[in-house]
């Protein structure tokens, strides 16, 4: 799990960082239209993410789980046949989703016609992303996480390059319309997707010997039609479950403007600025740490599927405990770290803004239940408990809708994040209760370790926050370059403190085993 998560985390965080770093020049070139551009970008991308999940999200997870299951049964020929059948499903899903996005853009614009060309430009990426996702799932089913991670990073790299070049050309060279720059920036998703596909095709050739091992030893094949139906059937719960966070974001998109207008006399410009603060500005940054949870989730599904195929209940219980600890060990200090450096990181990526910084600080804490949902949902799917997970998600969505109006009424721009946090906490409680009732998973077994993680993270956050206050005092806190220097020092100090504590008090041993001792020897920690 650690090895697979390392690859997936590297690819996911690398691509997320690129996806966040580009905003520094991009926002600068947008000038006075930056928050409006962020709002338009976010509205288009939320719709794109939903269609992307419908067209892809369920398929790689389903393929990954089924391939791991068949390989566990040593039915390698069926794994390959499943992959080819999955490609047919992917092609069909891509065509249907792209067509609906183009034909139905006017019905999804939320009353803003500027969103239509953005949705249309993103349809091209949806066309080929299912093929990419099936191939990634195929590799993950074999435990080969590197091709997925590298293609993910490559996809983001070329997307960002195209975005920056085209935005600079439109805004700085020809002094064009910022709305056209946003549309071209979203079209960059297709450029990135195509480059990611090329990487995967190269990987199929490179790893062909591993992928072909044992294929001739088993000729037990199902019909292509039967396997296609199986992929679709397996992927439907995945689609809904993995779209959980996106569904929450769409609820925000289609309710925030209306609820704010109900209780406030506010201009369209101001509404777009508020929406951009939590849906784009903060989202870009806290989704970097949620991508860690996504990486763990992608790794745990095939592991649990293989254990389930062997009916290995004891090791399933162990893996559930391991995945909770791994999540908390990484996510708690990361979330508190983001809270500690919120002022600096927000100033670097956008510009100094009191409200924007407070939204980011609040978002750092909301990232924890969101990330835990991602991991726990993956565990449920790996255990083939998708129907139960779907039930919990529907409860969460209902709670989100119930709390949305009062949260926005009382807390305005913080409201959507608050209602999301409340509903996700309830969903996570229900999942953990399910683990307790069915797999003998008790939080009390790992409570001592959790307390150490929280304590060390709080110590790290306290010293980091105070260190920043100390070095900030003689400087101009509004300056982006000074904020960047402070951020680098703060991240370094925070990382060193947490690393020292987890090694000194043997917490790391519970996560990475004997390698912790080697680290202590290298760093001369006794």
TrEMBL record:
Subcellular location: Cell membrane
Membrane-topology descriptor: Multi-pass membrane protein
Gene Ontology CC: plasma membrane
Transmembrane segments: 7-27, 47-67, 87-108, 114-135, 156-174, 186-207, 227-251, 285-305, 325-349, 355-380, 392-411, 417-437, 449-469, 481-503
InterPro entries the UniProt entry points to: PG_synth_SpoVB, Poly_Biosynth_Transport, Polysacc_synth
Domain of life where this protein originates: Bacteria
Signal peptide boundaries: none
Keyword annotations from UniProtKB, A to Z: Cell membrane, Membrane, Transmembrane, Transmembrane helix
Protein name: Polysaccharide biosynthesis protein
CDD domains (UniProt xref): MATE_SpoVB_like
Transmembrane in keyword set: yes
């Amino acid at each position: 799990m650690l090895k697979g998560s390392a690859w997936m985390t590297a690819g996911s965080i690398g691509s997320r960082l690129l996806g966040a770093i580009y905003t520094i020049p991009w926002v600068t070139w947008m000038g006075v239209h930056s928050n409006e551009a962020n709002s338009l970008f976010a509205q288009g991308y939320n719709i794109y993410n939903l269609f992307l999940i419908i067209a892809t999200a369920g398929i790689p997870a389903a393929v990954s789980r089924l391939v791991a299951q068949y390989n566990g049964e040593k039915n390698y020929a069926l794994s390959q046949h499943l992959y080819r059948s999955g490609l047919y499903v992917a092609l069909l899903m891509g065509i249907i989703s792209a067509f609906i996005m183009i034909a139905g853009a006017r019905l999804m614009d939320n009353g803003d016609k500027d969103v239509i060309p953005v949705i249309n430009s993103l349809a091209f990426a949806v066309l080929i992303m299912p093929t990419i996702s099936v191939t990634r799932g195929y590799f993950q089913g074999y435990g080969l996480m590197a091709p997925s991670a590298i293609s993910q990073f490559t996809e983001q790299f070329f997307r960002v390059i195209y975005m920056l070049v085209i935005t600079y050309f439109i805004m700085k060279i020809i002094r064009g319309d910022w709305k056209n720059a946003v549309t071209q920036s979203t079209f960059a998703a297709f450029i990135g997707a195509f480059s990611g596909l090329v990487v995967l095709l190269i990987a199929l050739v490179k790893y062909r010997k591993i992928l072909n091992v044992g294929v001739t030893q088993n000729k037990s094949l199902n019909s292509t039609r039967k396997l296609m139906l199986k992929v679709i059937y397996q992927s439907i719960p995945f689609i809904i479950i993995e779209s959980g966070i996106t569904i929450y974001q769409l609820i925000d998109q289609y309710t925030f403007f209306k609820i704010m207008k109900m209780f406030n006399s506010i201009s369209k410009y101001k509404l777009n600025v508020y929406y951009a603060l939590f849906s784009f500005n903060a989202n870009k940054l806290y989704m970097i740490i949620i991508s860690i949870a996504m990486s763990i989730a992608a790794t745990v599904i095939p592991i649990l599927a293989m254990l389930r195929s062997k009916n290995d209940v004891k090791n399933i219980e162990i893996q559930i405990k391991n995945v909770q600890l791994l999540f908390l060990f990484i996510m708690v200090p990361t979330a508190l770290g983001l809270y500690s450096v919120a002022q600096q990181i927000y100033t670097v990526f956008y510009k100094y803004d009191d409200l924007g910084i407070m939204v980011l600080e609040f978002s750092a804490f909301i990232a924890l239940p969101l990330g835990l949902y991602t991991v726990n949902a993956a565990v449920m799917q790996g255990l083939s408990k998708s129907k139960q997970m779907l039930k919990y998600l529907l409860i969460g969505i209902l709670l989100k809708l119930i709390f949305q109006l009062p949260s926005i009424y009382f807390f305005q721009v913080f409201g959507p994040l608050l209602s999301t946090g409340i509903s996700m906490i309830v969903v996570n409680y229900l999942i953990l209760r399910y683990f307790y009732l069915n797999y003998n998973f008790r939080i009390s077994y790992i409570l001592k370790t959790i307390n150490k993680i929280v304590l060390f993270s709080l110590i790290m956050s306290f010293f980091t926050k105070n260190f920043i206050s100390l070095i900030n005092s003689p400087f101009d806190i509004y300056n982006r370059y000074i904020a960047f220097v402070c951020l680098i020092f703060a991240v370094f100090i925070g990382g060193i403190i947490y690393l020292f504590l987890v090694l000194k008090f043997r917490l790391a041993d519970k996560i990475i085993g004997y390698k912790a001792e080697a680290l202590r020897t290298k760093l001369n920690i006794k």
